[in-house]
Amino acid sequence: MPTITIPTKDGQSFTAYIATPAVTPAPVVIMIQEIFGVNADMREHCDRMAEMGYLAVCPDLFWRIEPGVDITDKTEAEWKKAFSLYNAFDVDLGVEDLRATLHTMRGHAHSTGDVGCVGYCLGGKLAYLMAARSKVDVSVSYYGVGLDDMLAEGKGIKTPLLMHIAEEDKFVSKDAQAKIKSALSANPAITIHSYPGVNHAFARINGEHFDAPSADLANGRTRDFLEKALKKSAAA
Predict the structure, then answer these.
(1) Burial class of residue 96, CB neighbours in 10 A (0-12, 13-18, 19+)
(2) Is the pLDDT of residue 236 over 70?
(3) Backbone angles phi, psi at 73, to 5 degrees
(4) Which intervals hold domain Dienelactone hydrolase (predicted)?
(5) Is 147 helix (H, G, I), strand (E, B) or coil?
(6) To pair with 230 at 20 to 30 A between CA atoms, which of 30, 88, 119, 165?
(7) Helices (H) then strands (E): counts for the chain
(8) CA–CA dist 98, 84 (Å, integer)
(9) Structural domains in the chain plus CATH codes
């Protein structure tokens, strides 16, 4: 697999899958993993981003626990391992690793310097936090978990953030969804879309709850959102 190495502030490093578009330099999209590591699903998301003209990179955020995690949602054993990794994961360090990725990709030889991020599940939480804590140009959060416990961070978001919420999300209650919408909708930088009748991970390729119509709608909105934020300079 094509990978790059991302250095950290403390002199360590971790790897990231990278997909390069046909034409470079290109805007960058950091793809932020779910609880299953940099697996086939995340690599395919990267490859699709590259097909749309982005330099796509998916960092291994579990490297501090176990480097190279690559599992699926297909077996009970894999789910058990995924939740074990999630419970051991340090969110603040994860954001720092994403900030390191952002710094590296702004200066990458094939990058225009414009960088966005797109995250799913755990990655959806981290995309929200990147919007709040970093200078990333644009963020997209798919069914982020635990956001109702960190709504105060939304007050500091000034760059565009797109949020996709699954109305039947088994990990995000209706009450939590209402709190998220109530707290964040007033921020002009934040756009929130809800998807009725679909469960968590409705856009996970080949996932148990994949819903093609909702995934196509959300992905189309993501495409337009990223293009407006990251390709504006090229269009001008």
Answers:
(1) middle
(2) no
(3) -105, 25
(4) 14-229
(5) helix
(6) 165
(7) 7, 8
(8) 21
(9) 3-229 (3.40.50.1820)
| Separation of alpha carbons 141 and 172, rounded Å | 14
| Cβ-based neighbours of 57, under 8 Å, separated by 6 or more | 4, 16, 17, 18, 19, 28, 29, 30, 31, 46, 101, 105
Pairing relationship of beta strands 55-59 and 13-19 according to DSSP bridges: antiparallel
From CA 13, how far away is CA 220, in angstroms rounded? Answer: 34
Distance between CA atoms of 157 and 85, rounded to whole angstroms? 28
- Looking up tokens 């960058």 gives 28
Instruction: Flag whether pLDDT at 235 surpasses 80.
Output: no
Three-class SS state of 103: helix
pLDDT in tens, 170-196: 999 999 999 999 999 999 999 999 999
d(Cα 198, Cα 187) in Å, to the nearest integer? 26
Express each pLDDT in 16-64 by its tens digit: 999 999 999 999 999 999 999 999 999 999 999 999 999 999 999 999 9
User: Helix or strand or coil: residue 47?
Assistant: helix
Residues known to be catalytic: 169, 200
